[in-house]
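Suppose you are handed a protein chain with no further information: no name, no annotation, nothing but its sequence. What can you learn? This example shows the usual starting point.
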Amino acid sequence: MGKISEHVIRVVNSASLAGWYKTVMGMQVTEDASAKTWTAFYPGEGVKLVFQEVASKGTTYKSNRDSCYWKIGVTVSDVDLARENIMAAGTQVSVPNQFLDVGYLCHLADPNGFTIELLQHTFKQNFVKPTPDPSLALGQTAVIGQITTRSQDIEASLVLYRDTLGMKLLSIQDISDYGFCLYFLAFTAENPPDKDLASTKNREWLWQRPYTTLEIQCRPGQSCVPMDKEGEGVDHITMEVEDYANIMTKLKADQSNSSFPDPDGVQLKLKSASR
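A reasonable first move is to predict its three-dimensional structure. Written in structure tokens, the prediction is:
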């Protein structure tokens, strides 16, 4: 089975940023001194964040609504508790709200400006407060549940991610009042509870998955700027795929580094899935 394995980000002061993810977000961190990288992750099946050190004289990262990259999402059972603990550690977090019939959520930025969404397993009206775990930074276990990108042409994106790389489309969430639609894909054998991928019944189930999904926000007609290749920013997303050789041939991608952009400029790197 394939998986989204690494989310590689170029940053200044990678050690300090990794320390923030450990202390504030409760992730485990490791250093690879030879590669000048730090890795932050939650135990389990979710993606690992890899911070690559870049020169301080380069451009600093600024979140951009027109970028093909948006955020990561951290899923938890109790968003209010997670927010309380993060703010107690000195980081500001927006006030949580039930966003339509999507989810109970809020947002923050890490010290280098990368956006993080906190997303609750259940809608606000269905919340049952769990017993906190004071040994954990967020008071509870967590998963990097989403990497969110943007697309102008969702059909082209689905041809790549679903039809070529083998991801499964799990949910379609039409947010037309705000001018976009959300598509969630993952490397999984699971099926959502309702066969209708637009059903709201699938959403709380989706927020409770133990693996990372790719969330694509489709905004027809709006600009979608490719990832920067220098300075701070997202470098690439690593995906492990089955039938690697045939996929690379089909994509006509450079097999010397296995890296290529998706239709909207999100840089991907493929590896063969371990068995």
